[in-house]
Every structure is written in structure tokens, then in C-alpha cells.
Amino acid sequence: MAVCKSRAFMAFPSTRSQQPSTGCHSSHYAPQTQQETQPDRPIGYGAFGVVWSVTDPRNGKRVALKKMPNVFQSLTSSKRAYRELKMLSFFKHNNVLSALDIVHPGHVDFFQEIYIVSELMQSDLHKIIVSPQPLSSDHVKVFLYQILRGLKYLHSAGILHRDIKPGNLLVNSNCLLKVCDFGLARLEEPRESAIMTQEVVTQYYRAPELLAGATNYGQAVDVWSVGCIFAELLSRKILFQAQSPVQQLNLIINLLGTPSLDDLCRAGASEGATKYILQKGHKAPALATLYNLSNQATHEAVHLLCRMLVFDPKKRITCTDALSHPYLDEGRLRFHTCMCKCCHTTPAGRQYVSDFEPLCTSKFDDSYETSLFSVSHIKESLYKFITDRHQNSVPLCINVASPSFKSFQSSGVAPQPEQQSSPQLW
Ligand SMILES: [Zn+2]
Questions:
Q1: Which residues are annotated as a binding site for ATP?
Q2: Which of 78, 242, 257, 301 could hold 247 in an S-S bridge, CB 3.0 to 4.6 Å?
Q3: Is 315 left (phi over 0), alpha (psi -120 to 50) or beta?
Q4: pLDDT in tens, 167-213
Q5: If you measure from the C-alpha of residue 332 to the centroid of ligand 1, how many angstroms do you get, rounded to a whole number?
Q6: DSSP per residue, 261-327
């Protein structure tokens, strides 16, 4: 049936009457339903893609368009793109970014880049923290609540994000927050003997077990990052800002004190790291200095922070338990009173949902990865995955002739100031 289906062209045409280029293999131009005067513009950079603000011609809504370039350069890059695409299509949670659509790739022979459409989020937590705009205690609480709410959902789906940092927490003008960038995400490893890569998490937010050479780790690495971000929200300064992974570990020990041998064992610290830490001489904990982060560092705030910044990952608080900490009660109330999509206001008053922090209904399934053995096979499989999504909808396509598309196309990948530094070889 779907042979002659029309396609809608992405917002790149700057005038509504502009005809699509024949390069898009389309027979129809779906007119925009609303006037849209805002120009298309770049809004930021993801881990390996450029993000633009554009208009969805099917409904006139402003959305974000992310280009994933050089997807098929290597087996690793194609697998990574496929995983991010699968995850973004799987998520259904208000505090986790999801794909609203994926632009039709045209003919398979010209399939080189992937364009993902997602909700438009004007800012991110990094931009907000370094901006001069005030951050009240209410802001901190509602942001932290949403980070943990999104992360609880991801963890319940069996997913470790592995790059939680302020720049990967998108925020819109209503303070709604969404966790994004799943380029480093993976499924939890159930086998404790399995070797996992240590080249994850931007150094400032990297958990001590990773810095100490643990080759097997879990959800607690994300919670550590949230703890660092919580402190950064309070003080507007990076909590542990070191030049190298070893110095990073030293800064952590300066605050938490020297971990015990048991803590180091449970963290999975390597022999070299354990020797280094124990030979350094005993450091007493200096957690009381957390009260100096800001005048918003109340007893409740510091109590929760100290439960996140725990050296031993097995003793570190989980997202679920952190969400039941009294510090987050006000954030929860604010979120569900005026920001969420799960509760509703009726003439009788606000009707609250029964489960404020829902789990994912199923685990993310990565079994498709076992059959991805070559770039060409991934390309074929990805093409099918994207075009199958368009079976029952008007597929989006890009007008390659539009000047703003040309400018978008030529914008390369941004330099990464916060690349994951290589782990210390202990
Ligand atoms: Zn709600």
C-alpha cells in the first residue's frame, strides 16, 4: 500500500513555497500547517553530532534535529550510532530524551548520515551552571529530582549511561530536564567476572572505582556523577577538577578520606591502585567542607550528597533510595504540580499519578548487536530499522537544496573540550 506515500520535508526550506529538491525522491511536498518565522539555527553539539533547531513541517512545531555524521566510518562508529538510535527509539519517559522521528535516509545507496528529530530543549545544565542566572534552592531540588527520576528509569531498563555530566542534561525554559546522549551507554553486565571498558565518563564526573582501575562496575558509576553534579549545582564550581585521572582520585580521597582495604576490594580497585592509595599515608575525611559549597548546602542537602559520594560503590545510595530522601520532597511536589505529563489538573483539583517515579516496563534488549558483524550489514539493518518506522506515518525528508541545509551540512563535529581521558595504567 505504502508505495506512493507522500513525504514531509524538514524545515530547512526558508520559504514555505520552496519546492523540494529531486534529490529527496519525493513526489509531494507536504505544506506546513503553521507560519514559522524563526530561522533554523544550531543549538549545540552532542557527543558526536551537531544539533539544530528546526520546524517539523507536519505540525509546525519547533524540534531539535541532530546529525550523526560519519556513521559508517568503522564498525565501532556504526555500532555506537545503531545503539543510540535503538535506545532513543525505545525510551518513553519525561526525563529521558527520545527520538520523535528519524529522517528518511532516501535511497540506500546514498545512506551516509542519520538525522534524528527529538524534543527541542533550549539549554543544558552546563550552560545554566556557568551562566550568571540565579539558581535557587528550588531549582537545584527540581533539577536533581528529575536527573534521578530519569536515571532510575534507565537503570530499571538495565542501562548504564556512563557519561552523566551537566552537558548531557538538557533543560528547557520551564526547567524540564532530560537525560541525553547515549553514545556510551550499555547494558548492565550481570557477570561479575566480565571485563568492561574503563574509558567511560568524563573525568571530572568519573567514579573512584573507575579511576582505581575496576574492570567491572554498575549503576553506581552514574550515581557518583550525579553526586558531583549536585555539588556543582550548589557551588556552581566543578567539585573535583583535576588534570589527570590520578590527581582526580587524589582529590576524591582528600574529601572522603583514605578508603579502607575492604572498600578498595569491593570497588574492584586494581592491585597497583590499592598499593598507591594505601602508601600515600592516611587522610582523614573532610566531608564537613561540603557545608561551604553554598548557603543552600543545608543539613539535608549535605546528608544526601554524602550518600552519593561514597567510595565503595556497593555502599553508595541507589537512584531509588535517593529519590526517597526528604531533600527531594519539594522537588517532587513542584515537578508533579506543574511540570510533569503524568498528573492532570481537573476542575476538582490536581489528580496525582500513583507512581511518581515509574520503572521501565521492560529491559532494553541488545541481542540485535550479536548479529552486527560488518559495517555493510549494520548499514542495511539500520536502513531497514529507520524505514520500518515510517510504515504508518508521513516520512520526514530533508530538502538538500535549501541554503540553511547547506550550512547545516558543512558544520562539522564540535571539538570536544571534555573528552574522556585515558584511564591510568596501574
Ligand atoms: Zn506527575
A1: 66
A2: 242
A3: alpha
A4: 999 999 899 999 999 988 999 998 988 999 888 889 999 999 999 99
A5: 9
A6: HHHHHHHT--HHHHHHHHHT------GGGGGGS-TT--HHHHHHHHHHS-SSTTTSPPHHHHHTSGG
